[in-house]
């Protein structure tokens, strides 16, 4: 492993900072798109590392795809019976990060998870390919399973129950279909620079520990951290 890569990003000066975390985030997402950065062009959405704590207070983390982004925070879809969903039911505190390594940029969130509205979830479910919709019925995410053959048999069972007629209505929304957004009380914009003198600009919600709308200019105070 080498530690010699210089981070030659543009950095982030307070004078260039947008008035709200949402405006700054939108700017970085757009710039990543314009630069063709990894993940930015993907119809799949952006990879988000999403962390929770379990019942013992031990951290857990996994990758999800950011499917929703609005001033309430970044959101994703998942299985309501999954380990992450069960952890969030007991403790909604969470953290997430998304980044574009080739632009030397990462955005980091700390906050609480809030459920995504059923109408939004259903509308998104209807857009998924038929196989993905069947898989959402067949898989009980995070539960143990004896073999892949058992999973495939479940897939075949639901495929026969909800055949593909090419319509979004072919497959009903599974009862366990769920989604969460990270409603943040802290958002950090990290911009890599040379000699490890990176910029770290942090928006903190005025009501400590309570999430704020990302597009509310009065709700956030800005500070800088050492790299
Ligand atoms: C690129 C990528 C995207 C993923 N997107 C999702 C997603 O949007 N939702 C999801 O539930 N799992 C997604 N997964 C799978 C998760 O990383 C994880 O395996 C799964 O959610 C189970 O996590 P849990 O047992 O902690 O609940 C993705 C994995 C990868 C590698």
Number of domains: 1
**CATH class placement:** Mainly Beta
Reading the helices and strands in chain order gives HEEEEHEEHHHEEE
> CATH topology, anyone?
Pnp Oxidase, Chain A
Could you say which small molecules are bound to this protein? flavin mononucleotide
Structure description:
By secondary structure, the chain is an alpha+beta fold. The protein has one domain: Electron Transport, Fmn-binding Protein, Chain A (Pnp Oxidase, Chain A, Roll). The chain is built from 5 helices and 9 strands. Strands 1, 2, 3, 4, 5, 6, 7, 8 and 9 form a 9-stranded antiparallel β-sheet that branches. α4 packs across α5. The longest helix is centred in the first third of the chain and has 15 residues. It is elongated and about 60 Å long. The mean pLDDT is 94. Bound molecules: flavin mononucleotide. The site of flavin mononucleotide has 14 residues, from β2, β4 and α2.
Give a summary of the structure in a few sentences.
With 227 residues, the chain is an alpha+beta fold. It contains 5 helices and 9 strands.
């Amino acid at each position: 492993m080498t530690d010699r890569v210089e981070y030659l990003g543009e950095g982030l000066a307070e004078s260039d900072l947008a008035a709200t975390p949402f405006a700054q985030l939108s700017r970085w997402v757009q710039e990543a798109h314009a630069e063709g950065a990894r993940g930015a062009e993907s119809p799949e959405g952006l990879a988000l590392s999403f962390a929770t704590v379990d019942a013992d207070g031990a951290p857990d983390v996994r990758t999800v795809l950011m499917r929703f982004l609005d001033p309430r925070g970044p959101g994703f879809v998942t299985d309501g019976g999954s380990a992450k969903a069960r952890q969030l039911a007991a403790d909604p505190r969470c953290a997430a990060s998304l980044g574009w390594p080739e632009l030397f940029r990462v955005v980091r969130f700390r906050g609480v998870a809030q459920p995504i509205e059923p109408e939004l979830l259903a509308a998104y479910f209807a857009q998924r390919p038929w196989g993905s919709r069947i898989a959402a019925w067949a898989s009980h995410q995070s539960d143990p399973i004896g073999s892949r053959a058992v999973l495939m048999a479940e897939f075949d069972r639901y495929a026969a129950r909800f055949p593909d007629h090419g319509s979004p209505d072919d497959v009903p929304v599974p009862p366990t279909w769920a989604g969460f957004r990270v409603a943040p009380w802290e958002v950090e914009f990290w911009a890599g620079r040379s000699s490890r003198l990176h910029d770290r600009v942090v928006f903190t919600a005025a009501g400590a520990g309570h999430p704020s709308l990302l597009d509310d200019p009065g709700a956030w105070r800005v500070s800088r951290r050492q790299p």
